Amino acid sequence: MTAQTDTTGSVTAVYKVSGMSCGHCEGAVSGEISQLPGVSSVKAVAASGEVTVVSAAALDEEAVRAAVDEAGFELVGRA
Fold first, then answer.
1. What are the angstrom distances between the C-alpha of 65 and each of 6, 20, 31?
2. What is residue 65's DSSP assignment?
3. Between the CA of residue 27 and those of 2, 3, 35, 57, 71, what are the distances in Å?
4. How far is CA 68 from each of CA 5, 6, 8, 60, rounded to the nearest angstrom?
5. pLDDT of residue 9
6. Would you give per-residue pLDDT tens digits along the chain (79 residues)?
7. What is the per-residue burial (b if ≥16 Cβ within 10 Å, else e) of 46-64?
8. If residue 63 lies in a helix (H) or strand (E), which one and from where to where?
9. For residue 10, which of 47, 54, 57, 58 sits 20 to 30 Å off, Cα-Cα?
10. Distance between terminal CA atoms of the chain?
11. CB atoms near residue 45 (< 10 Å)
């Protein structure tokens, strides 16, 4: 999936992250990604391994990968 721009100018991207198994995992991943510049919202779902990120502009995938790594998980790629 490619990033989508909505009517407010925000960009929404969905990433696959492996290793999340609980709410604590979701919080760790969300917390790290939310610190990236321009990110306005992050929703991680352990059951599906998907992380939905809303940001002011498209994010550099390597920056997202680094944030996910910092949380202790692995970015598989875009969903």
1. 24, 14, 13
2. H
3. 24, 22, 12, 23, 9
4. 23, 25, 26, 13
5. 82
6. 445 655 568 999 999 999 999 999 999 999 999 999 999 999 999 999 999 999 999 999 999 999 999 999 999 999 8
7. beebebebbbeeebeeeeb
8. helix 61-71
9. 47
10. 6
11. 13
> How many other C-beta atoms can be found within 10 angstroms of the C-beta atom of residue 4?
11
Per-residue tokens: 73 = 């998980």
For 30, phi and psi rounded to 5 degrees? -60, -45
The predicted structure's pLDDT at residue 1: 43
**Phi-psi map region of 10: left, alpha, beta (phi>0 left; psi -120 to 50 alpha):** beta
**Tokens linked to 33:** 């990604």
pTM for the whole thing? 0.89
